[in-house]
Write a structure and sequence with these properties.
This protein has 15 helices and 15 strands. It has 433 residues and is of the alpha/beta class.
Length: 433
């Protein structure tokens, strides 16, 4: 079949883009033709829908900003007129896309769930309803999970959320990436969704085959005797990257125990537009603690010709430890990447980790599940003794190669048993039947 996958962006290092790359690979191996459509900020899209990426489209970004928390620069009436005009424009673009691709099946990723670009959800639903093409809506994050979306600015915004987040139709199937969201979707909307966890190709090792990532790290000032703590996520506030800085601050004092000259935090992800201020806070915080931070932007989720050659998975072989201090995740791409790359991981125990991942028996360095926040900066904190204990555990793991190897092999085997391409391929086959 010809399968069209639609998302705000593809080929980037956000979790949804990473999963789309995996689905494309899985479906292609099943002999399907896979076509990718996204907004203009992408790596490797086959088709571009101009108004789909809200964060880097100023008019759409303004509409989204006004839609929640009360109108600030527009009236309810002017917002409605502009919104509906934009929705009609997107409807035309989606209609053109469907008519060009002529897909047999469609996968819509997160557009009917996250609350970003409200107009796109209604426009896409209207287009698909007319086409009647069998569609799977895969939900990574729901708008009700994000405090930003809890104060609609007008009845029209509430109406859009009710009708299209997510919508229903006889041609539409649903999938969720964790059990908490699956249960909440039944409670809120009466919609039953298939469980589709994040996935990795555990049959292929994480390698930097051409040395492109090694060269990028060298250009960025890293040396072979640096201890690298890798934060392989976007720069988003809920990721609590300041906790990784706290960890590095503790590890700095212990670097010589491990034969290292420096401890460096490598951030291999871009900052969302709404989190540019958060990135500056992180930079200021690291500077105050005299922490070396290297921020890499020349990384994509998947190799594409004429684009940066260093991919996210190519960075992992050079890391000593992976930090994953998020307070909320739909599932955990970076967790799976870490265990696939056979690296120890430091985790804040976010809700989905506790319900869907931890019970499988993974061995991690835990930051616990209790947070507080600085009243001045809003930066997250865990108790100092928790950070100190985590740093001691990291040193113990890195200093004992046998212990480290046993841990990462144990985690790899659990991951391969539960989150492989083979498992995901079976589920996708049923969804697309």
């Amino acid at each position: 079949m010809k399968v069209l996958i639609i998302h705000y962006r593809v080929g980037r290092t956000d979790g949804v883009s990473i999963e789309i790359s995996a689905w494309k690979e899985i479906l292609s191996k099943q002999k399907h033709e896979v076509v990718l459509a996204s907004g203009p900020v992408n790596v490797g899209a086959d088709y571009v829908v101009d108004g789909l990426e809200a964060q880097l489209n100023p008019p759409v970004f303004e509409l989204d900003n006004e839609a929640f928390g009360g109108f600030k620069n527009m009236t309810s009436e002017s917002w409605a007129v502009t919104f509906l005009a934009n929705q009609q424009k997107l409807n035309n673009q989606f209609t053109q896309l469907i008519n060009k691709v002529l897909p047999d099946r469609i996968i819509v990723s997160n557009i009917f769930s996250v609350g970003e670009n409200l107009a796109a959800a209604g426009a896409l639903f209207q287009t698909l309803a007319i086409s009647g093409i069998s569609t799977v809506a895969i939900h990574h994050d729901f708008y009700w999970e994000n405090p930003r979306y809890r104060r609609p600015s007008s009845p029209l915004v509430e109406e859009q959320l009710e009708k299209y987040f997510p919508p229903t139709g006889p041609w539409l199937k649903h999938a969720c990436i964790n059990t908490l969201a699956q249960k909440e979707l039944i409670t809120r909307k009466g919609i039953k969704a298939t469980l589709l966890y994040d996935t990795m190709d555990f049959s292929q090792p994480a390698v930097d085959s051409n040395g492109d990532c090694r060269a990028l790290l060298a250009r960025s000032g890293l040396a072979p005797d640096d201890l690298i703590v890798l934060q392989a996520t976007r720069i988003v506030r809920r990721k609590n990257i300041e906790l990784a800085i706290d960890l590095v601050s503790q590890l700095k004092e212990k670097a010589t125990q491990l034969g290292k000259q420096r401890v460096v935090l490598v951030m291999a992800g871009y900052a969302e537009k709404r989190d540019e201020g958060y990135l500056k806070l992180l930079q200021d915080y690291a500077r105050a603690l005299d922490i070396t931070v290297v921020h890499l932007n020349e990384v994509s989720s998947h190799p594409v010709s004429d684009m940066p050659a260093c991919t996210l998975m190519g960075i992992y072989p050079y890391a000593d430890i992976i930090s994953y201090p998020s307070q909320a995740e739909g599932f955990g791409n970076q967790f799976l990447e870490a265990i696939h790359a056979k690296k120890p991981i430091v985790v804040f125990e976010y809700p989905v980790f506790k319900t869907d991942i931890k019970p499988l028996g993974f061995e991690v360095v835990s930051l616990g599940d209790e947070l507080s926040f600085d009243s001045q900066t809003g930066l997250a904190k865990v108790k100092p003794e928790v950070i100190a204990r985590a740093a001691e555990e990291v040193v113990a793991i890195l200093a004992n190669s046998q212990k480290r190897q046993q841990m990462v092999e144990h985690n790899f085997n659990i991951g391969a048993d539960n989150f492989s391409y083979q498992q995901t391929g079976k589920i996708l086959t049923k969804l697309l039947a």
